[in-house]
Design brief:
mainly alpha; 135 residues; 0% strand
Length: 135
């Protein structure tokens, strides 16, 4: 069973990363109306940004782990995801009437990216390396 899960994961990492990326583009550029949170949490949207970019960052780290294991390459992924977040903020300002660019969204995105990178480096990378070498 574990072997099947490993192969399923290996075969679909890029698909998962692409789906997450497209989802973020869609959610960043469409007007979401009529949705009210079940629980009232101050600055909930910033937590949502951080969580979205945490998932985005982890997914792309797993995709590119197959190709290049150098740490500098992982920093380039951090930069690419950060620039993607900046692009989404600019596109919100330029292409939509219901949304605007927000520097606090950039901070939230960046915090999600950094936390994902640290989690990956400290917790996941070593286990993932062992996980892939066993198949």
């Amino acid at each position: 069973m574990l072997a099947r899960i490993k192969h399923l994961y290996k075969d679909n990492t890029i698909a998962v990363a692409i789906v997450i990326t497209i989802s973020i583009v869609y959610l960043s550029l469409v007007k979401v109306s009529g949705l009210k949170p079940i629980v009232s949490i101050k600055h909930l949207d910033k937590y949502e940004h951080a969580l979205a970019y945490f998932g985005l960052m982890l997914s792309w780290l797993f995709v590119f782990e197959k190709f290049n294991k150098k740490r500098i390459f992982r920093f380039l992924i951090v930069l690419a995801v950060f620039l993607f977040g900046m692009l989404m903020e600019l596109l919100q300002q330029m292409l939509t009437t219901s949304r605007q660019a927000d520097v606090y969204d950039v901070f939230a995105n960046t915090s999600g990216i950094i936390i994902a990178y640290l989690v990956y480096e400290k917790l996941v990378f070593k286990k993932f390396k062992v996980f892939l070498s066993q198949s």
